Amino acid sequence: MAKEADQPREWTPASIREVATGFQASRVLLTAIELRIFSVMTSEGLTSAEVASRIGSEARATDRLLNALCAIGLLWKRQGRFRNTSASARFLDESSPEFVAGLGHTAGLWRTWSGLTESVRQGTPAPRPAINDRGDSWVKPFIAAMHYRAQQQAPVVAGLISLDGVARVLDVGGGSGAFAMAFVKRQPHVTAVVFDLPAVAPLAQRHINEAGLSDRITVQVGDYLQDPLPGGFDLVFLSAVVHSNGLAENEALLRSCAGALNPGGRAAVVDWVMDDDRVNPAQGAFFAINMLVGTERGDTFTEPEIRGWMTAAGLAPGPRIATGFGPEILIGIKPPTG
Asked: What is the pTM of this model?
């Protein structure tokens, strides 16, 4: 564990207050995203009343929000008219090809994180429906956020996992199918199955169809915590899955994954891998808080914990592979027959 002298930041009353009030700029941005302010802007600019008319909001309150967006550098204001900056036009306008999708999900996280104090007191998140029962207003922004992340990470991960001897891939909790798409693009003979909940499956199918890969990737509906996984795969892949579950659930899940593998096949877990003291990596420590407020038993886990599930499932230890973007890859190998 890091000693006090090793801490990288020298804290002062001012820096403490800066962290404590950091939510203000975050909330201004997330409200602007929820109201689609950057997407309704025009190149010639709009008055606050015109913006309010376009988004269906109250004029004075909209004006104050727009002023705050100017204060943090995401809008310009001149002669009473507001317009996007080059950065907001590029990254925050929904019509831009570089739009940072998924901030709607971040706005949802704001609400769950607001219950952190009670979650720590009680050890439980605020009561919420199961993911499959939360409706499109939650599921669509969530999958959009996961797809945005996965589009950047999937080609990297697919390039780090050997596909020698792999003909069929099972992407468990595969979300939008971005990782499955990256695997089949790497090798022309590889096919994949995305296994996910009924509310998620149509969104995955849409992304797969748009990529022109519906002949090589199929979507199977199921709940990996309750339903058996299909079998006959050479690689079972779990990205950003184990952090949503508790220890016992993950042990059972890895047993299911082992059962879905052909002899000699591999299971790949991509997630935060914490040091034994659970302090580092720092993003993983914060993600553990995200799981505390948002799930019943989710967490970030250490390598011995993840390896333990694999060993209990009869998988031999494989390599640990750094990705360069935070989460790492742990491989478990099913022994060949004979």
From this structure: 0.84
